[in-house]
Amino acid sequence: LSSLPATTELVFIEQITLRENAVALRSVGPSANVQRFQKKERGELEAWIRDRFAYYDSTASRESVARIGSLVGSDIRLLDQEIKKLALYAGDREISQSDINLMVPDSRDANIFEAIDAVFARRPAVALRLLYILLSGGETIHGVLRMLSRQVRLLILTIDLRAQLVSQEEIGKRIGLTNSWALDKTIRQSSNFNIQQLANIHRRLLAADLAIKKGEMDDRLAVEILVAQLSAA
Fold first, then answer.
1. Which of 9, 50, 58, 163 has the highest local Cβ count within 10 Å?
2. Alpha carbon distances (Å) from 21 to 27, 28, 29, 36, 37
3. DSSP characters over 105-126
């Protein structure tokens, strides 16, 4: 480090908080300049989102601000990209939740989570509405069934890993979820179900998919019947 040219700035990025007397800091000498960037919590994050919409001469409803924050998380750079995209899309009008459902990619995952919650809360009308939002956004019936099946499998794996007292970070690695919001939601959702319930859902999803592929049932009708059956289970 002592041989670095005066024109060079060397930056180290750490994911952990270093103590003032940490060996890593002492080793680089008094020239080290430590800057901490703390993760924004919900209230602070939503205030930042509102300010960022204003920066792009746009406005969003309170519900829309909360939704984009829950979808994208605290990744400020990604949030800025999504906010700018929404501002350009909406123009002079206020940004709504339907705009976010259409424009923010992770909205698909959010609707899947909410649809599963609605099914187990015995609210088939809500579940169908969320699934039809996915369909209106260009997703196919087979794609919807595939996403539902994937989420059910993730929930089964999560329940099993939690029973083994595996940490949340390790669960994310093992089931392949790198998005912190999706991982948090999956872990919370897994607390509401047991493996038998989820295995039953998975069998019904496979049966519906097979019936559609064989031409035994209209695809939309198959999904409507599936949701009704699961909501009554």
1. 58
2. 10, 12, 11, 15, 19
3. TTHHHHHHHHHHHHHHTT-HHH
Does the domain made of 107-232 have the CATH classification 3.30.420.40?
no
Q: Residues 110, 69: contact at Cβ < 8 Å? A: no
Q: Indicate the fold that domain 42-103 takes in CATH.
A: Helicase, Ruva Protein; domain 3 (1.10.8)
- Residue pair 52/79 in contact (Cβ under 8 Å)? The answer is yes
Torsion of CA 140, 144, 147, 150, to 10 degrees: -120
How many Cβ atoms from other residues are within 10 Å of residue 89's Cβ? Answer: 13
> What residues contact residue 29 under an 8 Å CB cut-off, 6+ apart?
1
For the chain, domain boundaries: 42-103, 107-232
Contacts of 50 (CB under 8 A, 6+ apart): 60, 65
Residues 6+ apart with CB under 8 A from 112: 130, 134, 147, 148, 151
What is the reported pTM? 0.54
**Contact call for residues 79 and 49 (beta carbons, < 8 A):** yes
> Can you tell me the distance from the alpha carbon of 187 to that of 182, in angstroms, rounded to the nearest whole number?
9
pLDDT tens sequence across 71-117 = 776 778 878 988 999 999 988 899 988 888 777 765 566 667 777 77
